[in-house]
Design brief:
By secondary structure, this protein is mainly alpha-helical. The chain has nine helices and no strands. Helix 6 (about 90-105) runs parallel beside helix 9 (about 125-135).
Length: about 140
């Protein structure tokens, strides 16, 4: 039984990876799911599946801007990134870039100035690099 479940899990995980990268599937998802259900699914996926988190975050950003921005604040900006058990800083470069690309530079600036963004994180070298990358990318 466990062998079967593990095999199905890994097959489903691979299928999920392919679907997350497929633009037609992304469009279908966004067009056919309720905002509340899609938000719940994507938030759970972001919390428990660290692989492909950028693709998941991008979908959440397109589906529910407020939930996506709350997620990045709660799970990244409010955390002490320098001492966190997970290496979360590497995701910020692409998350900041997606915010700028999808919502615009003004929205990114709001996120960078939000009260949830801990000062210690703003001084983090890798976070500074992520901010610079997102702001300079055309």
């Amino acid at each position: 039984m466990l062998i079967e479940i593990l095999q199905k899990y890994f097959e489903a995980k691979e299928k999920l990876r392919l679907e997350l990268r497929n633009h037609n599937e992304q469009k279908y998802f966004l067009d056919n799911i309720s905002i509340s259900e899609g938000t719940l699914l994507l938030e759970e996926l972001l919390r428990y599946n660290k692989q492909w988190s950028i693709l998941q975050f991008e979908l959440l950003l397109r589906l529910n801007k407020d939930a996506a921005l709350a997620f990045i604040k709660d799970y990244y900006l409010e955390q002490d990134l320098a001492n966190h058990i997970d290496n979360k800083v590497h995701n910020l470069k692409m998350m900041f870039t997606e915010i700028k690309n999808i919502l615009g530079e003004e929205e990114l600036i709001k996120v960078l100035k939000c009260k949830e963004f801990r000062p210690v994180n703003k001084r983090n070298k890798k976070v500074k690099e992520a901010i610079k990358f997102a702001l300079n990318k055309n």
